[in-house]
Amino acid sequence: MGALLGVVLGTGFLLVWVALSDPHPGSASARASRRWSLADRTRNLLAGADAARVSPAALATLCVSLGVVVALAMTVVSAAAPVGAAFGVAAAYGPVALLRARGRRRDRERSGLWPDVVDDLASGVRAGMSLPDALSRVGERGPEGLRPAFVAFGQEYQTTGRFGPCLDRLKAALGDPVGDRVVEALRVAREVGGGDLGQLLRALSGYLRDDLRTRAELESRQSWTVNAARLAVAAPWTVLLLMSLQRDVISRYASLGGSVVLLVGGALCVVAYRLMVRIGRLPAERRVLA
Fold this sequence. Notes:
The protein is an all-alpha fold. Helices cover about 80% and strands about 0% of the residues. α7 runs antiparallel to α8.
């Protein structure tokens, strides 16, 4: 029976090794593409948090430096290296969590601006303005958070006079699902000469306001579950932090058994928190017209 278990375990290790080591010459490019995808995700995270000037390397340096400093400080305070390492890992993830929270808050703020933009476009079209002029006016009188993209559109349209390419660049600069729908509606109205553009924009504005109202109600109810998950995850680590001030108690975590307890507890906290947040997460609108 023991020999059979040994064979099974050895076969499992062999399969893992084969999966991780790709003998084909394209494996280097595959690994490079994975690294590039990670860098792209980091750039998207920074751009979504309005921190595009920060490079991914600078963010990685900040995370590592913060994690090392906190790990050393907690090791000195508690005299237990595993405890310091646990808090160091949590501190290293802190900047990433802050950027994600800032990105979600920025998305909510921008989604709340679109009904006013659509109302401004509808009033401009109803007043007899052309579509390029109405879009350019948003850069002057629209919400502060969306003005730069529309200002760039107005400047480019005055230079080139090409409405379609300018709309494409506006849509890319906005990077928003609602913006995609508005831009495409304007494009269709421009190409086919729709006479009901003002009515279409007013209907779209009403739909956006109803959607924001419904999402706000759902998020307010969901916040109870999310806050409960955060409190449940933070509670044991807060107790561990208070225990770190008593070296005779925290010294038990300096052993191999204590390290295993911290590792398993941290993994369970991460898995449980991610699972609860994923189950209760509201579906995000995707850019299907990008």
